[in-house]
Amino acid sequence: MDFGLTGKRALVLASSRGLGLGVAEAIAAEGADVMITGRSGEHLQAAADAITARGAGKAHALALDLSDKATPARLEEAVEKSFGGLDILVNNTGGPPPGAMSEADLSVVHRQFEIMVLSVMDVTQRLLPGMRAQGWGRVLTIASSGVIQPIPNLGLSNALRASLVGWSKSMANETAGDGVTFNMLLPGRIETDRLKELDAANAKRSGKDLDQVAEAARAQIPVGRYGQVEEFAAVAAFLVSARASYINGSMIRCDGGAIKSV
Fold first, then answer.
1. Which SUPFAM superfamilies match (predicted)?
2. Which residues, 6 or more positions from 216, have their beta carbon under 8 angstroms from its beta carbon?
């Protein structure tokens, strides 16, 4: 299937590794030009060079930190300079520290809200007018299965990412008439460095062996294994494609069936 992404211009936030990089690679493989972002300039440029070398879409690297309040304006300027506009925005952020919500430091909550929620809203509001004016756009926000079924010991992530659900749905209602769709993609346990860090934290907290923790986690997933980045990224590439024009205001799960609700 031709996704209709050849020549499209995409910005993928927090894409130097893990899910973000996987999504950028999948979109570029369909012929889109992508801008990848992250804090490590050298590592980011190497990732961009590798994407471009594959010969489909080209990649641009932009080193920045979403915790810097000047970042949304920098992104807006960089997109205009490199692309002259944008067709696809993939909102992605790193996760907050694990821990119980009842024990959260409110100063940490406030700071993480700025990074994980306000920065996403700011970047989107800056880049959305161009999409609406051209009559075509895709905004995909990567969150977590925890917005549907809260994940133990990830209280801050559950709470903050859930705030983006109402925002994305509201935006979907407001912009669909201009040809711009808003959707959310919810990863379950996808095998990334972040997942390894969380398994290690759970092992330390419970006093169990790391392999035992991972085995118990896999046993809770109907397909019996962790997901692969490429599987998740393929779903993302479809959701931002021309073929997904009638999917709007939705939350798509990519979790192997781990969420227990319908």
1. NAD(P)-binding Rossmann-fold domains
2. none
